[in-house]
Design brief:
The complex is a heterotetramer, with two copies of chain A (about 375 residues) and two copies of chain B (about 130 residues). By secondary structure, chain A is of the alpha/beta class. In chain A, about 35% of the residues lie in helices and about 20% in strands. Chain B is globular and about 45 Å long. The chains are: A alpha/beta (about 375), B mainly beta (about 130). The structure holds zinc ion (2 copies).
């Protein structure tokens, strides 16, 4: 297996992009990545696209061919593959692209993630629920928020986690997002505002839940040798692991541990030859604030049950020991579903290059955790300078 | 009614799941393959009593279009007395739900299929104490 | 890159499977493949699933995690990845699985394809149209059949292909299907019946169009060394190529050549070290009869414009020189959209093993061509004994 | 009206596409990136005359739900005089269509959005000879 490097990154703005079509959004991220890498376009040998639900959001499947086409690559006839695992779709695209380069099958590959959700109006929430078990969860009236809410309630009961702890995750991520020009929400919020926002699914409130956003992101990967021709600051992907779990929350033996995350993290650390304590910066999947607390625990940043302490003690703040979600995370940078796993990779790359502007942290190794649904899919990627 | 609903009627209405005779584990919703035994699975149908206990719950305030009329409603993780945990609506005043509460199954209306206006029924749970 | 072998195959019945749910159908194919390979299940290291539109057909995304779960693999936490390229989704799953084994990343991998289309009734056709350009083709009223119909009309005008030639493709495939116990339509049809069936989109008639079927198929791949432990009749995958093209038919310079097919075939022949004339049996994507004629040409079985001669002269019949679609093809075995690419691989494997029963042909090399939409994606896989 | 429709109104109603000033190729539907020049693309909007010729066509008998009332209708591949080929409905008696026929654009009703009952208009083509 060859060493894989990120040689270009790009991202659209995130948010309610009323004026832009799906094609426009993807293209803006792709072109930015090409410019960043200094490529013309014809050097790309394959494309992987993470997209959750083009079929429902746009009435359009066959998204990978569509994007290759509108990215001006149709004449090259390169293989273009859509992968999907709900909101972990981006992470899957990154992993497949890594595999394609590491194996020697391709030299330069683009991995993108994209979602356009705002065109369907109020149906977006119901569509997101198709990340969980339609027949045995959604049918009963369970929403994605309510499933995470039941995890949160259990976590509170079992470990003494408080609504204030969850709110602090949101406050931190909003604060970070003020420093990110691509973020959807660029204003600080107070703990009081978060704690008094309306309930979405008790005990989770509006500020515990990431928005559903439009957005796209792209990374260009190359083998180590080739990377050196294009960039003086290659960021290496030292591991990219993926794992699965029961799709329905109710089928899992331990409702407070995402086994897919634990499994993918263990593999990734082993392959990268590092431990949790060596991670200097992380982007994790805070689709709901409780998910960030679980991530601290399941990634090994804290022991099980002690995740909330990290946020209480400021360990995961921008100036803490392990800054988490410097971009603002899904909560404040925006959650463009299929784009999220790639957007996380873009942020970690910028951080390790030293190009993260006002939100720059100091780190040798970075980690990205992308989760699908309530944890039936997880990808953990480790980046190093 | 759409086939994907009537195909499940027995399982939904009567709380019929499955049991693996190889390892003794029982499953609801039903499984054709036991995740412990896989190809050694020996699956038979099994009717569940419909009694259980609330493990966790949420009061849903932001509901999908077809359930907006019912909000706020309670969704719960219920541990059946035979072992499996299931997701279900709990017909109960949100103020009165608590973790550890005993519940039992009940036959209730679930929703309406948009186009044909067909009404779906299924199992919900009600307090049993 | 390591040599990859097929060590197990399985398929559900194809057709309108009213009594079976999506989960039931996939499981029946998967268990058959495990039994065929003599595996318990825990030997599987990864899963790839081809599925076009679970989001539209079932209201369910995150299909790969769902299938791994219901296949009893959740406790193993293996990576499970859905890939999608309309009705070429199965071919993509096969290619990703091949890559995973060839690269040394995994030793034993399952690739499956599945679709459950009949639950949505008359909407199935509109959903299939999302394989083409929703904004600039479907919006105007173009159906998938009408796009292939316009290709057929041009082919007739340009090369003298006749409605009778198209009908003969359908007659051949129906005849083959009578010998396939898993096929949807197991009755012969006459040329007269085909030529007098009602128009779907002129000049294509009902018998020019494959049905939309429920069904699933699975193949288990392993590296050469490991394959020898499990089977005495390994079938090797000597190449698996994928290519893309403009998503909309109107954007292509040559409307009568599928560049994605030409491109994927060229790569596959080169990698396998064979030529078109060395192919002894083929399963090609006859979603419409004209597509089989184009396949003859674009795969190099005939020169451009001379495809119809192969069917007129019986070259592609079961007892011809290059039997095509011995299974009955999409037309008569059934077109379970995302399953098709894998079902083709199952058929070719059975043929090369000598286990194809009454439809057995004699061949050293087999080829499978899976096409998405009107040709924006194509995969060409070459199998050898 | 859904944003994905109004976002395209100018392009659909007025047949506005794009031209790449680097290579001279013109595109309809519009492209932001020229597939010949890619990052060297120099894209500008361009209005098409709306005159062209039928390259191929099909009379649609099996139509999706929302177009069933119109069937059989004619769909055609039309080569615009500026070069690009587009897919469009052709408002014409199916008996009278032929390959090579001259056509021109016309403003016509396309369909109705199910839920809100909003009517969509756009460009169709009519005979021009
Ligand atoms: Zn068992
Ligand atoms: Zn140009």
């Amino acid at each position: 297996m060859r060493r894989v490097a990120v040689i270009g990154v790009g991202q659209s703005k995130f948010g309610e992009l009323w004026d832009s079509s799906f094609r426009d959004i993807v293209l803006s991220a792709g072109v930015e990545a090409l410019e960043d890498a200094g490529l013309e376009g014809k050097e790309l040998e394959a494309m992987y696209i993470g997209n959750m639900s083009g079929g429902r959001y746009l009435g359009q499947e066959h998204i990978a061919a569509l994007i290759a086409d509108y990215a001006g690559l149709a004449e090259l006839n390169i293989p273009s593959t859509r992968v999907e695992a709900a909101d972990a779709s981006g992470g899957l695209a990154l992993r497949q692209a890594c595999m394609a380069v590491a194996s020697g099958m391709h030299d330069i590959v683009i991995a993108a993630g994209a979602e356009k959700v705002t065109d369907v109006g109020s149906k977006a929430m119901e569509i997101l629920a198709s990340a969980t078990d339609r027949e045995w969860e959604v049918f009963t009236g369970a929403t994605l928020a309510s499933l995470y809410a039941m995890i949160a309630r259990l976590h509170m009961r079992e470990f003494g986690t408080k609504p204030e702890d969850l709110a602090m995750v949101s406050v931190k991520n909003h604060k970070n997002a003020t420093l990110n020009p691509k973020a959807q929400f660029r204003r600080e919020i107070s703990l009081e505002v978060a704690l008094n926002s309306p309930y979405v699914a008790e005990p989770l409130r509006l500020f515990d839940c990431a928005p559903l956003s439009d957005g796209a992101a792209a990374v260009i990967l190359a083998s180590e040798d080739i990377a050196k021709k294009y960039t003086d600051t290659p960021v290496y992907i030292s591991a990219c692991s993926q794992a699965s779990d029961y799709i329905a929350l109710h089928s899992r033996k331990d409702l407070l541990t995402m086994q897919a995350v634990v499994h993918a993290a263990r593999q990734a650390y082993e392959q990268a030859g590092i431990e949790a304590k060596d991670v200097g910066v992380a982007e994790v999947h805070d689709s709901f604030t409780i998910a960030e607390i679980l991530a601290y625990e399941d990634l090994g940043f804290a022991k099980k049950g002690e995740g909330a302490e990290l946020i209480r003690e400021g360990v995961t703040c921008l100036d803490g020991e392990i800054p988490v979600n410097p971009s603002g995370g899904l909560k404040a940078c925006g959650h463009a579903v299929g784009a999220t796993g790639i957007r996380q990779a873009v942020e970690i790359t910028l951080q390790l290059r030293g190009e993260a502007g006002k939100r720059q942290v100091d780190a040798e190794n970075g980690l990205a955790l992308n989760v699908g649904g309530t944890g039936a899919t997880a990808t953990v990627t480790i980046f190093t300078r | 009614m759409l086939p994907r609903f009537w195909r499940k009627i027995k399982y939904r209405y009567d709380l019929v799941g499955t049991k693996c005779k190889n390892c003794g584990n029982s499953y609801y919703p039903p499984r054709n393959l036991c995740p412990v035994c896989r190809r050694k699975s020996d699956i038979a149908e099994m009717k569940f009593s419909g009694r259980g206990e609330v493990i966790s719950y949420s009061v849903v305030h932001e509901a999908p279009e077809d359930l907006k009329a019912q909000k706020p409603y309670v969704v719960a993780l219920i541990k059946l007395e035979e072992g499996p945990v299931i997701t279900s609506q709990l017909v109960c005043d949100p103020e009165n739900v608590r973790t550890g509460m005993r519940v039992k199954k009940a036959f209730r209306k679930y929703g309406e299929e948009g186009e044909a206006g067909i009404i779906y029924y299924g199992t919900k749970f009600v307090p049993d104490e």
